[in-house]
Fold these 2 entries.
Entry 1:
Amino acid sequence: MANVTVIGAQWGDEGKGKLVDWLSNRADVVVRFQGGHNAGHTLVVGNQTYKLSLLPSGVVQGKLSIIGNGVVVDPWHLLKEIGQIREQGVDITPDMLVLADNACLILPIHRDLDQAREAAATNKIGTTGRGIGPAYEDKVGRRAIRVADLADREALEAKIDRLLAHHTPLRRGLGLPEVDPAGLLAELEAMAGKILPYARPAWLLLDEQVKAGKRVLFEGAQGALLDVDHGTYPYVTSSNTVAGQAAAGSGLGPKGPGYVLGIVKAYTTRVGEGPFPTELFDDVGKHLGTVGREFGTVTGRERRCGWFDAALVRQSVALNGIAGIALTKLDVLDGLPTLKICTGYRLNGQEIGYLPAGLKAQGQLEPVYEEMEGWSQTTQGARSWKDLPASAVKYVRRIEELIGAPVALLSTSPQRDDTILMRDPFQD
Ligand code: GDP
Ligand code: IMO
Ligand code: MG
């Protein structure tokens, strides 16, 4: 396959950034196709740690990097992140970073609305507070400002009027101050000159790249269980996070995504509110959180931790058309005497092998576990399958069996090179 799509197969933070960075040197182009700067992708290369929220992880290896039309873009944040990554010695120029000219913008009014709603809600979603949801609402509501509008003052003025006609009453209801249209226009115009050099028809560039035989790597954000259709709605993000979105969110068409690589953590975590059948509140949960350093990259919040949920990942394999997985953070399980894997659930006395759509049912699921022996040796930093203890191999093989997909890559530490390649997704 010429192209590979990397997606999170759980609730995000599976290690997508690390794997996209690792796979980047086999690719020519890296593309983000959904989400925004709610993502937090951590790359560790030697003694440098890069934290990317909006930039495709390919920038670190100097690859042509595209922010596709499916992404909602906070332009001020983008400029800030470019500055931070440049300070770490990575060169970023409009030659290698391209922003789709038809992507929609996240504005300060979106962040205000996101945060004010969360503050007022009794049933909080636990969002990242970065304006993602309200920006997608305006996109679907056909009143968003898009990147290309920044070059057209007349269009901007009309769009601001339309946008504020919607936002002013909302802001009033939440006790937020009114926005002055002239002030917003001035802010946008002051930023436009810095953003527009990156703006291009990304779909056209991608089409040219593919016709020239280049390999494209799509970088998903969040995870399948945070997908606005397929996730634990309403405790989800506001975009489609599944692999199918790589096509619509980049403009490359349905054949574009190629081999779908699901990134899967060897246990389960989630940040924010919502159902989590295998969540642990005991010492094992604490162990996973501490050893796995499970703190949100974006908000610093503690991630909730639990046992590996094979039913949930099996569902992700189907939803995304996953051909193989990259299993990450196996090393975090080192030293645990017994491991549990959730193979399905019990709901009102009946066995059920998938996550039902109803929120109430999702909250009532009792996980059905099978137990496996742990291992006392260390797997941390292992670079060969042969270095793994027999019980770790058994654990990985059982996961493959239960989810119905093979392990293509195994990650054993945050470091780029602590990665075991079993089969090359670009060759499969
Ligand atoms: P992403 O959002 O999917 O890119 O994942 P994050 O970067 O938010 O979270 C994954 C965290 O685990 C990061 O801190 C990574 O450096 C780290 N990580 C990735 N792979 C491994 C691994 O195999 N072992 C350990 N211990 N940490 C890992
Ligand atoms: P990466 O790409 C984990 C979660 C938030 C919240 C819900 C909605 O690093 O895996 P939003 O701000 O998107 O409206 O919040 O989604 N969430 C993530 N959780 N990893 C992420 O991204 C996430 N992006 C959003 O915590 O529960
Ligand atoms: Mg993350």
Entry 2:
Amino acid sequence: MFYIGNHTTSSKGYAAMGRQMVDNGGNTFAFFTRNPRGGRAKAIDPKDVEKFLEIATENQFGKLVAHAPYTLNACAAKENLREFARETMADDLNRLELTPGNYYNFHPGSHVGQGSETGIAKIAEVLNAVLTDAQSTIVLLETMSGKGSEVGATFEEIRSIMDQVEKKDKLGVCLDTCHVWDGGYDIVNDLDGVLAEFDRMIGLENLKAVHLNDSMNGLGSHKDRHAKIGEGEIGLEALVNVIRHPALQSLPFILETPNDDEGWTKEIAMLRQRRQE
Ligand code: FE
Ligand code: FE
Ligand code: ZN
């Protein structure tokens, strides 16, 4: 099965997002668990969830990849900001139990001058405070581009965070193709080498989802500007190699490309075609 969909910006509820994705030709999707800039989350309507679960079963959806607000910084210098990260993540994880067994991905954070070692320790501290044995959601660390003081732009840093987290069975990784490329991993000329390095540092069994994006910038640029599939510096052929790679076959692929529904529908159809060839 090929699981592909896009990050939907719809805020009309689960059933609406499910229908939108069926219309786009997708069978998974990503969405912000609340306003991406933070703030209180809308109450979830159990009837809406029920309807969504029907749509998901009917259309053989794969696992969803919920996205935490990108303003959340688990390694902020200020305690009140880290407290906000803990509260938001704990609340999101509670709410996600209404749609059990999916993924919740987040940006590890920016160390804002404290140094990556301190940043890594603080991120692990937040995860140790919010992960519970009871949760069915797996929390995913997203690989970052290294913009500013972002933590998680190298596989070593992702590994260090994982090493300091107690409930390792609740933790995984989401690989963003734009971010790793911008971070300096050459997935165009040496995808096998990059995945071998991922396996050596992190373990491929911990890779749970892929954000499939082209990049507006070059290898190692640390910019994080997504491009449409085939319209950036990574290019179509390299991204087709990603979706066809034997080690990645079963993962959900999420497009975070600058598109509307029409654009995502085209990208999904084209990638479905290319995956099979
Ligand atoms: Fe992200
Ligand atoms: Fe991403
Ligand atoms: Zn990005």
